[in-house]
Amino acid sequence: MGHMTEEEKAHLRRVEGELPPTPPETVVDGEDPKEVDDPKNILAFPLPPPTKVPAKVLDVDKKTPDAHVPRDPRLIRLTGVHPFNVEAPLSDLYNEGFLTSPELFYVRNHGAVPVVRDEDIPNWELTVEGLVEYPIKLTLKELVADYEQVTCPITLVCAGNRRKEQNQVRKTKGFSWGAAGVSTALFTGTFMSELIKRARPTRRARYVCMEGADKLPNGFYGTSVKLNWVMDPNRGIMLAHKMNGEMLRPDHGQPLRAVIPGQIGGRSVKWLKKIIITDQPSDNWYHIYDNRVLPTSVSPDEAAANPAWWKDERYAIYDLSTNSAIAYPAHDEQLCVIGAPENYRVKGYAYGGGGRRVTRVEVSIDKGKTWRLSKIDYAEDKYRDAGPRELFGGTVDMTWRESSFCWCFWTCDVPVRELRDAKDILVRAMDESMNIQPRDMYWSVLGMMNNPWYRIAINQENDYLRFEHPTQPALIPGGWMERVKKAGGNLLNGYWGERIDGEEPEVPVGEQTKEIKMTNDGVNREITIDQLRKHDSEKNPWFVVNGEVYDGTSFLKEHPGGAQSIISAAGLDSTDEFMAIHSETAKAMMPSYHIGSLDEVSRRVLSEGEVQADPSGTPRPIFLDSRSWSKAILHSKVSVSWDTRIFTFKLDYDEQPLGLPTGQHLMIRLRDPVTRESIIRSYTPISETTKKGYTDVLVKVYFDTQDRKGGKMTKAMDALPIGHFVDVKGPIGKFEYIGRGLCSINGTQRRVNRFFMICGGSGITPIFQVLRAVMKDKDDPTTCVVLDGNRLVEDILCKDDLDVFARDNVDKCKILYTLTQGPEDWNGLRGRIGGPLLKEHCCRSIEINTLVLICGPEALEKNVHVALNEQGWPDSDLLFF
Ligand code: MTE
């Protein structure tokens, strides 16, 4: 891939540790020391900071589809372990200087990183197709050999940069970036226009669509930009294969990516495979449902209900907006005012959009009444000033180009004596079109392009000033926004939520709806993580939801989900599962069990990572772990009807048992591919509990219809590509069938002679497990009567197996199907499961010890409950799954 210049070789030797690192800020590019001595001849521009290629795959990544990607452990994970969405700690990012090392460069991956073997890189294929006269197919080797190569510094910014601030005001559909979703590198490659010129777009051609190699739940990642932007040399749109002089790293698109300067990072498609010229913007799912700023009046519900909002190109984001943030003072930095130097140097970054230069950065310490101008270092100009030259196998030639595609660093010296009287430090930037950052936030459903004045609060603590940034990234607690909100301040009052004299505390916007209070105001104990972890057993199970600690001891017996699920959560943070599975009624019961709040440090420890089953990677004798999520890979998917699938998940190894007792369930957790919101549901596999290495789950997919939204979980599962994983945890459930009539209900054993099994739709699955256990054991004398309700014949799940059970076990198995829309020739039962059918087929007799197992939609379970009680069945004989 081209010859290396001496400069590159030296750089690589530095990378490999042979040469001392170059000072991070500015490197003198001149061979002759005599010339260097003359300031007029110093052609100085920043070279990359020292870098260390991560050599090791981190333990946390080993069980994910990214097990082939070595990474830097300093990066803060914003969406759990996988996919990899990370930013560096803000101070570390800033300290690296103008250029960011690839290992600290922020990463935004929607899914798994494609596996690309080193030997295949030169033959990586890229096509140019669509509205062109000469479609092109070429390899990376050809792209590098046949096209002119350029090297340019470019800042990439995720459209979600600073989103955590929006999430504090009102939860958006996006995860919480701090202010480090931005990084800069020297990219080397070809101008995209060169390639497209050779393909000769036709007259109708307007857009350049791009597609990556990462297969995601909604297809390959893809988006588009306008053709005339690509053809405009001032916009500098590139196809890059190198970053800071080395081959792109896997997380950044190895071996080839688009780089669209001045626009949001989402347009710079990584692992680029296809360029398609069209007359319409991309119809890729990620182009439509991601990277948009919908009007602020569009709520999450409205956005979900009305796809028209997403299809309006006016709301798609291309150019970045003007933005800035303060890096120093850092969050929680303290300044002792006694003996402090006269000035404190406030420092940070700023960037503009669409190539527009940041023309001023202003700092205020009196809430925006007056502003002082800061000094700006335009490092990007140093490459312009240096004139054309070769670097990393490409020509740096920016002399002719006026656009600014990089961040700039600014500083502002503020007298410490003035800071002592100030409440906060504010910064705002303006660009050459006089676009200025606003004071107030523009909240929108995806939480993108957040760019109000960046504010650091100053807390006066005796002789110290303690600085507080607005937020901390991901779930890390801290920041003035969280503090102000907790105290009832309205973050949108135009005054950063500070109480104006006489103002009542407010409930923040967006939280007024359906926020169930789960804490007890009378409780104000602080609990440490060590105290929590001591209560990790059935003796005294404590668990955490949203940072609050609850004692489940007195609820073990009554818990409708069984004592086991409380015990499984003991000593752990179970926020996700709790919030996903429980009703508002259940949440409203929580204040009675509230015993305290986790302290700050403990919250941080908990938020840094949930417990992962066997992080060491040693094989576990049993797959399921009731206290931590395990990853199971989707192995295959078989459609058994138009809306029903059997998903087969692969466990860790072929001989591994699942570890699910008959009659119990497991939880499956998926994350919404865009919002990263976790979705958790419980399922009972239909494969035998003794099956090894794999487990089969039968799922009916609830698609969207004209009148109602479909099922979030089942649609997401249906969209899951083969090879992706889901998180699995369990067992859960209060019922277990031990065998030969012996059951265990919440730990108490009970013998039965007969089961009545009442179910509807996919409620058959737990029933099926128990029924099969009874039928497979020839010595099990228990009799079973199944009453299975559905709408149409084709809705009856597992019918073939059920019929075989009935045929082979005439003396102990009776299966009754009832249909609400049975065909004319249907000779089974008709109508809904309710009083009359139950009276006829589930008759109570005191001589036969019977347990009724019920599983189905809520309405069916309610009707059956009422009807059976009316017919004299006590609750102790009814078991709802
Ligand atoms: N390209 C592909 N193929 N897949 C992706 O998930 N993410 C996009 C963009 N290109 C993405 C992609 C988004 S949203 C951003 S912000 C940038 O890549 C991030 O680039 P980086 O991870 O190299 O910083």
Features of the shown structure:
881 residues, alpha+beta, Immunoglobulin-like, Flavocytochrome B2, Chain A, domain 1, Elongation Factor Tu (Ef-tu), domain 3, six-stranded antiparallel β-sheet, 46 strands, binds ligand MTE, Cyt_B5-like_heme/steroid_sf, molybdenum ion binding, nitrate reductase (NADPH) activity, oxidoreductase, Ig_E-set
Question: What does this molecule look like?
Answer:
The protein is of the alpha+beta class and 881 residues long. Helices cover 19% and strands 28% of the residues. Strands 17-27-26-25-19-20 form a six-stranded antiparallel beta sheet, with no helix packed on it. It has a six-stranded antiparallel beta sheet with strand order 35-34-37-32-33-36, with helices on both faces. Strands 44-43-42-41-45-46 form a six-stranded parallel beta sheet, with helices on both faces. The longest helix is centred in the C-terminal third of the chain and has 13 residues, at 764-776. Ligand MTE binds next to strand 5 and strand 10.
Brief synopsis:
The chain is α+β, with helices and mostly antiparallel strands and 881 residues long.
